[in-house]
């Protein structure tokens, strides 16, 4: 029985696909071990969103070689899709697989040869959406379901459309079947994910959309909690807001990527919206959905970002009702328009701006959490911590005292304290 270790970089789609690969290999008799242990085969499911993530993939390749010099090293994911020739030249690499080839991981690992080779198809030619088969999930309370892949947008800083291909969706029937399968296994929450989730269904014939899928799930799938991943601010129409306001299943939590609070920077990024639109959507959501948690992505130090434009971003973020920020220092990604733009911001300035935004995020997260002290929240208990740790419907982590029988149950918790962005509470009997 060969031992296989898999490690994952990047997005939730990669996490889902790694879980699917793990399950498929386990079903075929491979022994799955942690990446830090000695294995016969190491699989690095890579990310290529920045040059820094490419470097991290190379570090993991070297680490695998040190752990077992006789092991076969396999690299897949977006870095593999974009730079297969570069990866093949790295010492110890035996096989490079593109994103489409992940589905054939079992047969390909059975045939790993001493001579390095790449099996990478043209992702831009893929037009059908297929969700990797997955019957179980490592986390025993929440499951991620991939319903969309690829992206048709062309943001100036992003290489992902070239690594993931055109936007393509699984059929509503397949998506609903996936949700039902997770519910049958006892999962209490299903998280819908995609590279460009808000573009779900537009490529299908007949076309549909994410809101239609959510409505079908609300009516037909007995899932206690359904969570939506990241969607663009332009993809939250009034009908979506009205649905979220009355939904019994979709959690009051949305991640709306902003990227910059300056209209000038947004224009250079080719984001296709203004700060006014973002503010309108955010305020409408907060006004309609009680307690909703809104998060966002922000890039610090995009090429040409002046001190005045950064100040615009900072002030905008202070004013808009957001609960947290995911802050990304801009990093040049070869192959993107932004990499060759004039006015590249000095790395020291980028770091300083990112740090200022992270401090703002901590303050906003703490204020948002504090607003729930004295309230009772529905918490899905997940695992042992200092007591039991769970997740509220609004995405806040909650510590609650109780026995092991609470795990994978949604319970009522009276919030007594907020510690930063985390809550502490007592079980309501």
From TrEMBL:
Q: Which InterPro entries match?
A: Elp3/MiaA/NifB-like_rSAM, Methylthiotransferase, Methylthiotransferase_CS, Methylthiotransferase_N, Methylthiotransferase_N_sf, MiaB-like_bact, rSAM, rSAM_horseshoe
PROSITE patterns cross-referenced by the UniProt entry: MTTASE_N, MTTASE_RADICAL, RADICAL_SAM, TRAM
Every copy of the TRAM domain together lies at: 370-429
Question: SUPFAM superfamilies of this UniProt entry?
Answer: Radical SAM enzymes (SSF102114)
Tell me if Nucleotide-binding is a UniProt keyword of this record.
no
Its required cofactor(s), as named, are: [4Fe-4S] cluster
Which organism was this protein described from?
Geomonas limicola
The main enzyme category here is transferase
Q: Which family does it belong to?
A: Belongs to the methylthiotransferase family. MtaB subfamily.
**The enzyme's E.C. designation:** 2.8.4.5
Q: Provide the gene name from the record.
A: mtaB
Q: Which reaction does it catalyse?
A: N(6)-L-threonylcarbamoyladenosine(37) in tRNA + (sulfur carrier)-SH + AH2 + 2 S-adenosyl-L-methionine = 2-methylsulfanyl-N(6)-L-threonylcarbamoyladenosine(37) in tRNA + (sulfur carrier)-H + 5'-deoxyadenosine + L-methionine + A + S-adenosyl-L-homocysteine + 2 H(+)
Q: Residue ranges of the Radical SAM core domain? A: 137-367
GO MF entries = 4 iron, 4 sulfur cluster binding; metal ion binding; tRNA (N(6)-L-threonylcarbamoyladenosine(37)-C(2))-methylthiotransferase activity
Annotated function: Catalyzes the methylthiolation of N6-threonylcarbamoyladenosine (t(6)A), leading to the formation of 2-methylthio-N6-threonylcarbamoyladenosine (ms(2)t(6)A) at position 37 in tRNAs that read codons beginning with adenine.
* Record-linked SMART domains: Elp3
Arranged from A to Z, the UniProt key words for this protein are: 4Fe-4S, Cytoplasm, Iron, Iron-sulfur, Metal-binding, S-adenosyl-L-methionine, Transferase, tRNA processing
Q: Please identify the protein, giving its name as recorded.
A: Threonylcarbamoyladenosine tRNA methylthiotransferase MtaB
Domain MTTase N-terminal: residue ranges = 2-114
Under Pfam families, the record lists:
Radical_SAM, TRAM, UPF0004
Organism lineage reads as: Bacteria, Pseudomonadati, Thermodesulfobacteriota, Desulfuromonadia, Geobacterales
């Amino acid at each position: 029985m060969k031992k296989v270790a898999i490690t994952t970089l990047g997005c939730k789609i990669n996490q889902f696909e790694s879980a699917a690969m793990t399950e498929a290999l386990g079903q075929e008799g491979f022994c799955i071990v942690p990446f830090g242990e000695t294995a016969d085969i190491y699989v690095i499911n890579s990310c290529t969103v920045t040059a820094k993530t490419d470097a991290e993939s190379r570090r993991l390749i070297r680490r695998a070689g040190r752990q077992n010099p006789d092991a076969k090293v396999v690299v897949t994911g977006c870095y593999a899709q974009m730079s297969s020739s570069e990866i093949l030249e790295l010492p110890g690499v035996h096989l490079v697989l593109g994103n489409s080839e992940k589905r054939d991981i079992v047969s390909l690992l059975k045939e790993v040869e001493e001579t390095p080779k790449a099996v990478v198809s043209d992702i831009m030619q893929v037009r059908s959406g297929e969700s990797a088969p997955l019957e179980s999930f490592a986390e025993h309370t929440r499951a991620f379901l991939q319903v969309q892949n690829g992206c048709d947008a062309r943001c100036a800083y992003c290489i992902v459309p070239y690594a993931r291909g055109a936007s393509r969706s699984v059929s509503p029937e397949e998506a609903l079947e996936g949700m039902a399968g997770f519910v049958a296994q006892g999962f209490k929450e299903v998280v819908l994910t995609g590279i460009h989730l808000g573009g779900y269904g537009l490529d299908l014939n007949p076309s549909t959309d994410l809101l239609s899928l959510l409505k079908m799930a609300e009516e037909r799938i007995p899932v206690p909690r359904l969570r939506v991943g990241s969607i663009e601010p332009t993809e939250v129409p009034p009908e979506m807001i009205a649905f979220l306001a009355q939904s019994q299943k979709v959690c009051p939590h949305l991640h709306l990527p902003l990227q910059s609070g300056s209209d000038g920077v947004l224009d250079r990024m080719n984001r296709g919206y203004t700060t006014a639109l973002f503010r309108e959507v955010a305020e409408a959501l907060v006004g309609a959905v009680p307690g909703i948690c809104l998060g966002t992505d922000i890039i610090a130090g995009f090429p040409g970002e002046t001190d005045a434009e950064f100040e615009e971003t900072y002030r905008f973020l202070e004013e808009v009702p957001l609960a947290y920020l995911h802050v990304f220092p801009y990093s040049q990604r070869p192959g993107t328009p932004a990499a060759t733009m004039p006015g590249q911001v000095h790395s020291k300035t980028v770091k300083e701006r990112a740090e200022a935004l992270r401090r703002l995020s901590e303050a906003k997260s703490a204020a948002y959490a504090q607003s729930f002290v004295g309230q009772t929240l529905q918490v899905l208990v997940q695992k042992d911590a200092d007591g039991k740790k769970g997740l509220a419907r609004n995405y806040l982590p909650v510590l609650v005292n109780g026995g092991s029988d609470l795990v994978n149950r949604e319970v009522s918790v009276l919030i007594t304290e907020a510690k930063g962005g985390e809550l502490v509470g007592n079980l309501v009997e």
